[in-house]
Amino acid sequence: MKAASNPGPARTAGVRRGWLVWSPPALLTLVVTLTGIGHAQPWRDELATWSAATRPVGDLVRLAGTIDAATGPYYLLLHGWIALAGTSPAALRLPSALAMAGAAALTARLGDRLAGPRAGLLAGLLLAVLPGTSRYGQEARPYALAALLAAAATLLLVEALRRPTWRRWTGYAIVATALGLTHLIAVTLLAAHGLVALLTAWRGPAVAGLGDPGSAADRPAGPAPPGSVGRASPTGDPATAPATGPRRTGERPVDDRRTTPSAGPPWRWLAAMLPVVLLVAPLALVARGQRSRQLDWVRLARPADLATLPGGAAQSAVVGGVLVGLAALGAARLGRRALLPGAAVLLPVLLLFAAGTAAPLWVTRYLFFTVPFACLLAGTALAGVRLAPALAVLTLAGVLGLPDQVALRRTHEWPRTAPVDYRGTARVIAEYERPGDAIVYSPRDSWLFLDLGMAYHLGSRRPRDVLVVRDQRQRADLWAGECARPAECLAGVDRVWLVVAGRRSDPLTAVPGAKGEALRDGFTVREVWPRPGLTVALLTR
Length: 541
Hints:
Blueprint: H1 8-34, H2 44-53, H3 57-66, H4 72-85, H5 89-115, H6 117-129, H7 131-137, H8 143-162, H9 166-182, H10 189-203, H11 256-259, H12 267-272, H13 274-289, H14 291-294, H15 303-314, H16 317-334, H17 339-356, H18 371-382, H19 387-400, H20 402-408, H21 422-432, E1 438-442, H22 450-458, E2 464-465, E3 468-470, H23 472-475, E4 481-482, H24 486-489, E5 495-501, H25 513-522, E6 524-531, E7 534-540
Parallel strand pairs: 1-2, 1-5
Antiparallel strand pairs: 3-4, 5-7, 6-7
Helix pairs in contact: 1-5, 1-6, 1-7, 3-4, 5-6, 5-7, 5-8, 5-18, 6-18, 6-19, 8-9, 8-10, 9-13, 10-17, 15-16, 16-18, 17-18, 21-22
């Protein structure tokens, strides 16, 4: 009787190979995102994050009932992180850097599952060098976490459809729910998951593009490369390796569509969607009621927006063009195995665009979670050539993105030619402030968050906000409420720091309404300090 073979060495080799696929992208992404992570000052969206996440949990829940419910779960997560790490720019952004490194690792693993180890490795490395990866990996907002969860949910779906067990489906359901709670727009990814799950249930994993990368049923049609029969691919990628050697006379061909196990009926995927519906739908309903305030700055989507999407997502027009071109080549090379990553890119884009033509929802950064799947397709294209040329293309993509990498570390504002210097304005006030000084902002209710910018950089040294009658926490809002009679509130104040948006030679003329009248009637401009995007003036009686 033949002794059973020992699977230990093979398993060890597989683990080692897997580690070599995902660890280089993770480490490179971590190095890139940590480089200069605290250099750019927090921009307006990050100031909103700081304001929300530093509130007590009860106040944070009240805020979600007023505005920004869609980001509420992320604020809650960051609330716990801040208690440990503090509120410096680097500390606020570190979770995003870690999440982006995880997204690169999981992109590589997913590429390994669908297209082979070389495609996975190159996909993860490409994601690491994109300027967009640095941009959102260095921002205290949920987009990097959404990219991580999107890649994780898709990887878990592949495993659950190939080898369905309750444990795998439960893990998928948990991560898919977390994805929806982190970023509502990312729920559109589940449409791509549903498409693949239903096709798998109907025709099997191989037909849905989830078969073994080396299987005959999954390789694009066409003649085998010369000299490839009977040996491994010269690139080392199973996606291009022959599936079998020559058949013996009379032997029937193997049909992967029959030998690949079926994922079973589609109710498993539908059951996994139950917690998504139960937990994410209520959040979506609350967020929908806040849309008129939350997205009043967004216009309806237009066809031209689709053309600018790659550059916006990659944070570089030229690198975005390279990514799209490589992704198209990779989709052609993958054949039916391009279904899942291709749908993971196209369906969220098309669904959000369709919705954005009827309601103000189209914002490029909302779709960053699709970028890992575009990188997966692009990595497959690069895996079709030898390693040295593939790495040269990656290096070229990194070099082309260098100007944007440098620029985004100077400012996170968009466009980058219009920075807002909260930090410089705060330094002026800190240098010349006297006890008893007051501070006034104009405009108060804009998305620039002038008061939050001064509060972040000045802390307890900030002059008294003399016009406030109810602050942000009391109003459960991102904006404070000012007194209706500014002249009365300014009584007894001899020096006022006026912070206005834009560059103003005469800042008093930029203040509208009763507030402007009270300041012009009672004060004169003593000195003006223009700063990028802002003007600060000292007013005296």
